[in-house]
Amino acid sequence: MKAIHKPQFVEDVATLRPTEVPTPQPKGDQYLVRVTHCSPQHADILHAKGKHQNNTKRGWCHPPFNLGYDFAGVVQSVPSLGSKSGSKKGDRVFGAGIGAFAEYVCVPEGAIRRIPEKLTSETAVAMSGQAVSYASVVHITKVQPGETVLVSGASGGLGSVCCMAAKAVGAKVIALAGDEEKAKHMRRDMNVDLVLVMKDDWIQKVMDFTKGVGAEVCLDNTGMVNDAIRCLAYFGRICILGFAARKGVMEEVKMNKLLLKSITVVGYRFGESGRRYPETLEEIWRGYLSMLETGKLQPLLYGKYEGLEDIGRALKDLEDRKVYGKIVVKVADLPAGSRLT
Ligand SMILES: NC(=O)c1ccc[n+]([C@@H]2O[C@H](COP(=O)([O-])OP(=O)(O)OC[C@H]3O[C@@H](n4cnc5c(N)ncnc54)[C@H](OP(=O)(O)O)[C@@H]3O)[C@@H](O)[C@H]2O)c1
């Protein structure tokens, strides 16, 4: 099969091209999936360059390996030890597993979910990594109708869905962007109340929008707790989701600033919470998929990418911060005999 195979780490993700590698053979507890779509994310760039925390000898991704994580596809074979989820050959599924930038990937139970009939495979893969955004709104900060929610990294995969989920529960949303060019697209394509470029007097603009009160909630994807404190209301809530802008250097926060405004800061690591609280995880997926199936959440798709040959271009566009929303790369048509339910 063809795959973005990494015999060693690369400096420039734009140089990544598919090569011929052996088709993976599923172990007893694994599904074999024909990949039809994949959706590159920030972590894939780190994996390709050897800069991810999992790029150690003991981690998941050390050369040689096939790159990629989020995918949608069609089950080719079920685990020989049995399928607990009931997924069958021919089912459309989405999920995550190292090696997804390939024609085939092997994944264990729990790494895939069936795609609901109403969703296209493109939508499923574009939204597969953002249940965390939904959960940050509904389960962690418990956003209420009428509250103002500030979202950093709002153009990103997580951020764009934070905005949509907050709007879906009736909040007003202020989306933060890195530059004016991107902000222009976001004003056109994202259903938010205000898009601000993070420069000059943006904090004052948040205060003006909220009539001097400040936003009730900040969903922070970039690492901007100190800025958030300056434009949050008393008893405001900050949910830390990621540090996309920190370049590995963490913020320091003066505790008295939290006390003076009675601010709550909570970190949320989706994967770990899911492993520890599987019932809550299922509840989150039910709520998230229901919002997707009823059209309350819709993917914001960026550009057109087709074939594994386009993976290098997709990752480079991500790295250059051109992207708003999610990239989906179509890898193959649905194989004949695929089931829609
Ligand atoms: N908590 C969890 O469980 C969880 C799960 C998955 C991912 N994450 C983390 O959440 C963060 C966001 O992930 P994502 O998939 O949404 O990433 P993404 O699609 O790359 O979006 C990140 C956004 O941050 C902004 N940004 C600001 N400074 C940046 C910089 N120096 N480099 C890149 N982007 C920068 C960009 O918008 P502008 O260009 O407009 O500024 C970009 O759209 C990442 O740190 C990721 O590791 C957390």
From TrEMBL:
InterPro entries reported in the protein's UniProt record: ADH-like_C, ADH-like_N, ER, GroES-like_sf, NAD(P)-bd_dom_sf, Zn-ADH-like_protein
One Pfam family hit: ADH_N
Gene Ontology CC terms: mitochondrion
Residue ranges annotated for the Enoyl reductase (ER) domain, each copy included: 11-329
Record-level Gene Ontology MF annotations: oxidoreductase activity
Name this protein carries in UniProt: Enoyl reductase (ER) domain-containing protein
Taxon lineage: Eukaryota, Fungi, Dikarya, Ascomycota, Pezizomycotina
